[in-house]
Q: What sequence folds into this?
């Protein structure tokens, strides 16, 4: 099982102490082995080698701990691109960096894929898990990217929020189809082809304006 990245998370995510990191490492093993329903704080406590009270002091409850895992396995990977929750950089370069980070550092992490499977599998019985992932990753990422599009009028994007949804939605659906629904065994759509078409879509309006 892949180790959770331990990069410093100032700005977009709070910094973690060594004790918090110890808890997160133990928790990810338990959640992915047992599933959300069967995971108990007693089991996490034993796996992490800390008391339950220590876990509660850092993460409040099981849902808070699960949210921290989602953030660590997704948002933490984008830390180098953020500045106080904002994206900065030339659109043609930055947007491809965002996409490449998701498709490599995030989607190539077996723990992230296992977490995504867990959320999808248990979403019917535990809809709060799906909502938590949606709020923590999808909506947060869409908001940040939407703000970025709105701050770059030269892109001539009439609906920044919708374009942000299309951008991230394309990446997430690609990973689900290819990695979880075994699409890579059935199709030969490469990541580069997806990224090239996605970038062409985003940048096309600005090119029309120039023409």
A:
């Amino acid at each position: 099982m892949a180790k959770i990245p331990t990069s410093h998370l100032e700005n977009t995510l709070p910094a973690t102490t060594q004790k918090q990191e110890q808890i997160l490492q133990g928790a990810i093993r338990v959640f992915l082995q047992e599933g959300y329903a069967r995971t108990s704080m007693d089991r996490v406590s034993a796996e992490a080698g800390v008391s339950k009270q220590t876990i509660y002091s850092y993460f409040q409850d099981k849902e808070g701990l699960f949210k921290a895992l989602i953030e660590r396995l997704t948002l933490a990977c984008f830390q180098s691109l953020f500045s106080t929750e904002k994206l900065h950089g030339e659109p043609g370069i930055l947007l491809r960096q965002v996409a490449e980070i998701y498709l490599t550092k995030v989607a190539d992490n077996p723990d992230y894929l296992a977490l995504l499977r867990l959320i999808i599998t248990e979403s019917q019985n535990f809809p709060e898990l799906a909502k938590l992932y949606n709020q923590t990753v999808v909506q947060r990422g869409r908001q940040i990217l939407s703000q970025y599009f709105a701050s770059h009028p030269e892109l001539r994007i009439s609906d920044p929020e919708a374009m942000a949804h299309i951008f991230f939605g394309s990446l997430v659906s690609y990973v689900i189809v290819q990695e979880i629904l075994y699409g890579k065994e059935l199709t030969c759509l490469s990541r580069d082809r997806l990224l090239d078409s996605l970038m062409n879509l985003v940048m096309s309006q600005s090119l029309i304006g120039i023409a």
In short: The radius of gyration is 18 Å. Residues 127-150 form the longest helix (24 residues).
